[in-house]
Amino acid sequence: METIAYSDFAKLEIRTGKILDVKRHENADKLYIVQIDVGGNTLQTVTSLVPYYTEDELLGKDVVVLCNLAKAKMRGETSECMLLCAETDDESESVLLTAEKAMAAGVRIV
Fold this sequence. Notes:
Blueprint: H1 6-9, E1 14-24, E2 32-37, E3 42-47, H2 55-58, E4 62-66, E5 72-74, E6 77-79, E7 82-83, E8 85-87, E9 94-96
Antiparallel strand pairs: 1-2, 1-4, 2-3, 4-7, 5-6, 8-9
């Protein structure tokens, strides 16, 4: 495992968030387009969670979000953040990370 300096870790803006909207991507079987409140700011991500969660299970869920990821296009949609998950090596399970206690959207993870 490669190690990094704390200064590298400190560059990551990881915050609590709340999923506001979820819809299936029209041109991809495994992708959702998700709107996330990260404390007064709404970010969009395109995520491959279809095999693991239904839209209803995601809607309103408290999550952990990497907010300062460079924007990318995924199947024509802009993804500007990343939902953090624990995922098995064989990708048979993927579980969204959450805070142990309910926290307001936008609280920084340190």
